[in-house]
Design brief:
about 850 residues, five-stranded mixed sheet, single chain, alpha/beta, 14 strands, 32 helices
Length: about 850
């Protein structure tokens, strides 16, 4: 994508300079001729105006044809601050006063291009950032659209009379804008995406004008006439290209829908892409109250309380389609559709709003800039990611605008010609095209990396790993490098703890974010150690070529339920036996054993920031007696033939987190089959074994006692909830694919959706699991170490109650006792056993 232009290729730029000079002179002459005085081109605002010449063919021509526009463009203070929508509307009304028919269209087109010239002058001279430029240009479109709506409405009512409701009131209509205009981010030559709605189909027209038509016919005519008015092209240019493809039923649908019809359509027939499109919907013209009623009516459709597996599947398909189109685009880079371009960035932001907006209304917004800010403020993306996205979006949209205002054409691909590419780079403030394309390539890589990680649950992990790499690069010595992982973990936990204590994050999301921190640490430990191992021993080989490696997370890390004091349960697998190909040759089992040992050491090493994590590998095949690493085939054989039920249950909370990507996929497919798809033992056997395992766990490991309540392992604890839901999962996952999830909170929701547990048990278990985890995580945060029980006699109990937002220590204890009793009742009902009684 780099320019190949030679330093001595000056002809093109000499011509551009001469063109700019010629256009400037023509403008000065036209101005003098129009008002019999010279234009004062010494003022700063006037000098900025001259920046248009040589940069925009269409605006240069418009200014020469309408030189007195310059006085309006340079009139203080509107090159320094935005014109409000109120002022824009007044100027439109004044420009169109006393005009009729085609004269109004001509006046509006002149107004549009005059305002385009003013805003482009602001953009060229950097008097406003890109967000303000896009917002102000969208305001211009809103005001033109609102005037056009009123003009067409008045014309139609003079012919047909007023449309009415069955109550005899006026049947109002509204225009809903979507896409760039809906987001208030209209570019200089964008289509506008519109939906037309009206109050009701009930009743005809209020007057006796002939011919009488229905409300529906009236508003279809209105939509058609508005569209014709906006798209009409004359010697003055045109107003806007209009796209109706986002309306209900798309190109096959009617141009206007009643509010009821639109609501029914979205309720019964609305598709996944329409949910995404409506995130950027906004009332733009017509009756404001109706517009907002439409927005309220589609909220349940757009922002679902819970996202189903089907929703995720559709969103993934949309993502795949966007990615494929980006990769297949030929020729120069396409700012909109190319890999890492505008569409990928917008989809990333909109997908997060859609995923979390149902339960977090505070992040709902139609504007991309505002959305990035809200996602950051509510901890869905980090400050670094938010800053990167904002700068990337500003850069891409500024470049897009500079390409489009030259001819008022909807272009998105960079110029093919080297000289034209350099010209664009210079206009944007770069010294040469190489600097511009380097910047663009870096931005597109960053955007695409985030986009490609979406729905993989690790886009945050990508940014975390980047932060660790950046920190490693800045280290001055080996000690600092060794400290990096522990420092990073401590730093991220501190940030999350602050949000947690301010009650700005729910427990399930907190645990997922804490788990992502651990994923990133393990991933970077693998990256660091595997590099040093390969430089020493070369690449391990097996029968299929290079031997592959995967790190498997189990326990709380596997289920993405890490809290502040959780250990890491890890298992290490490799593809097959063989030897390395370096100067020092060792067997694959030796290579991968050393690699696993180095990873554990790096993660669990004591540093001046403490250790990153304690690592437990006891859940590997054969436990502590088994080899630290094993082949995937051996892992499969062990679990198929020799594993016990507790090991089958542990697989339900298992996932891959680091290693060679293709082998990670193969490993996960094996785990999925072993955990979820194999037929379970009989119901009686499973219930009996789970009860035995829980009894042994309580006897040997629980800290329950007089005045002590073990929240993790005691009676009525998290372990009992886990036993209940994992029992149901084991017995039903082969038939219900929605149950094939590791996370307990996700599993609970799936069990309720499938009707396997009752609504009341779902609510009780969810409340109990959240309550127990909340107390346990605050306890660990308070003590700064792993802790599992609450001591009624502890002098710190009041402080713990405060951290949990509970009014007193007594209420905290009584709440724990009551919750344990409720959990135990459900446990005993599930496994047909007696309530422990006074042990609670």
């Amino acid at each position: 994508m780099r320019s190949k232009i030679r330093p001595d290729s000056t002809f093109f730029f000499e011509m551009k300079a001469k063109t700019a000079e010629r256009e400037g002179q023509e403008f000065l002459e036209a101005y003098r001729h129009a008002c019999d005085r010279n234009f004062d081109n010494n003022a700063q605002d006037a000098r900025d105006l001259f920046g248009v010449f040589g940069r925009s063919n269409i605006l240069s021509a418009k200014l020469i044809a309408n030189p007195l526009w310059a006085d309006e463009i340079c009139r203080p203070p509107y090159l320094k601050k935005p014109k409000s929508a109120e002022i824009l509307s007044k100027e439109i009304n004044r420009a169109c006063e006393g005009l009729a028919g085609s004269e109004i269209g001509a006046a509006l087109r002149k107004f549009k291009y005059r305002e385009m010239a003013r805003i482009v002058v602001k953009n060229i001279s950097r008097r406003a950032d890109e967000r303000e430029i896009l917002l102000e240009w969208s305001d211009v479109a809103d005001c033109i659209l609102a005037f056009t709506y009123r003009f067409v409405f008045d014309n139609l009512t003079s012919k047909y009379g007023l449309p009415t409701t069955s109550a005899g009131d006026i049947c109002h209509g509204a225009i809903i804008s979507l896409g760039k205009l809906g987001a208030q981010e209209l570019n200089m030559s964008s289509d506008i995406d519109l939906i037309f709605v009206y109050d009701s189909d009930n009743s005809q027209l209020k007057t006796s004008h002939e011919p009488a038509i229905s409300n529906h016919e009236f508003y279809v005519k209105l939509a058609s006439d508005v569209t014709k008015f906006l798209t009409a092209s004359t010697e003055d240019g045109f107003l806007y290209r209009v796209d109706h493809a986002l309306r209900p039923e798309g190109a096959q649908g009617t141009l206007a829908n009643s509010l009821d019809a639109a609501e029914r359509y979205y309720q019964y027939f609305g598709s996944s892409w329409e949910r995404q499109a409506l995130i950027r919907a906004r009332p733009a013209a017509g009756n404001s109250d109706l517009g907002h009623r439409f927005m309220k009516s589609v909220e349940p459709f757009v922002y679902k309380r819970t996202i189903s597996m089907g929703d995720l599947s559709h969103m993934r398909l949309m993502k795949v389609k966007i990615e494929q189109e980006g990769k297949s685009s030929q020729g120069p880079f396409n700012l909109k559709l190319g890999s890492g371009g505008i569409r990928e960035l917008e989809f990333f932001v909109q997908a997060l709003i859609r995923l979390y907006g149902g339960s977090h209304p505070e992040i709902r917004t139609h504007n991309t800039f505002e959305a990035i800010k809200k996602l950051c403020e509510n901890s869905f993306i980090s400050e670094n990611t938010a800053a990167s996205l904002l700068e990337s979006y500003k850069f891409l949209r500024r470049t897009e605008n500079f390409m489009q205002f030259n001819e008022d054409r909807q272009v998105h691909s960079l110029p093919k010609n080297d000289a034209a590419l350099l010209d664009l780079a210079l206009k944007l403030g770069f010294d040469n095209s190489a600097s511009f394309t380097d910047e663009l390539e870096g931005i597109s890589r960053s955007v695409h990396r985030l986009f490609s990680c979406l729905f993989e649950e690790d886009y945050e992990r990508c940014e975390m790993e980047d932060a660790i790499r950046e920190n490693l690069d800045s280290c001055q010595n080996e000690e600092e490098r060794i400290d990096s992982l522990a420092w990073f973990k401590k730093h991220e936990h501190k940030k999350l703890a602050e949000i947690d204590l301010e009650e700005k994050i729910a427990i399930p999301l907190l645990f997922k974010k804490l788990s992502t921190v651990a994923d990133a640490v393990v991933g970077m430990a693998f990256e660091i150690t595997s590099g040093s191992m390969k430089s020493l021993y070369g690449l391990p080989q097996d029968d299929l070529g290079r031997a592959k490696f995967s790190i498997v997370a189990m326990g709380s890390l596997g289920s993405r339920e890490m809290d502040y004091g959780s250990d890491l349960d890890l298992c290490f697998l490799y593809s097959g036996d063989g030897m390395t190909n370096g100067e020092i040759k060792i067997s694959n089992v030796e290579f991968f054993t050393k690699l696993a040992q180095k990873i554990i050491a790096l993660i669990s090493m004591n540093t001046r920031y403490g250790r990153a994590y304690s690592v437990d590998s006891e859940l590997r095949p054969s436990g502590g007696q088994g080899a630290l690493v094993t082949t995937l085939d051996s892992f499969r054989e062990y679990h198929e033939k020799r594993s016990e039920l507790w090991e089958r249950l542990s697989l339900l909370k298992t996932r891959t987190i680091a290693g060679d990507p293709d082998f990670l996929q193969k490993t996960m497919e094996t785990i999925f089959e072993l955990a979820y798809l194999r037929s379970p033992p009989g119901e009686t056997t499973v219930k009996s074994e789970i009860k035995r395992l829980r009894g042994r766990q309580r006897d040997e490991r629980s800290a329950d006692g007089t005045f002590r309540y073990d929240l993790k392992l005691g009676n009525g604890s998290i372990a009992d909830i886990d036993s209940i839901i994992r029992y149901h999962q084991l017995m039903n996952s082969g038939q219900c694919k929605s149950l094939c999830v590791q996370n307990s909170f996700d599993l609970l929701a799936a069990l309720e959706n499938e009707g396997i547990i009752s609504d009341s048990n779902y609510s009780t278990l969810l409340q109990s699991l959240t309550f127990m985890h909340d107390i346990l995580s605050r306890l660990r945060l308070y003590k700064g170490r792993s802790a599992g029980y609450v001591d009624e006699k502890s002098r710190h109990l009041e402080e713990l109650a405060k951290m949990c937002k509970i009014s007193s220590a007594g209420l905290l204890v009584s709440s724990i006792i009551e919750m344990r009793k409720i959990i135990s009742e459900i446990y005993c009902d599930t496994f047909s056993c007696q309530l422990p009684g006074n042990e609670l």
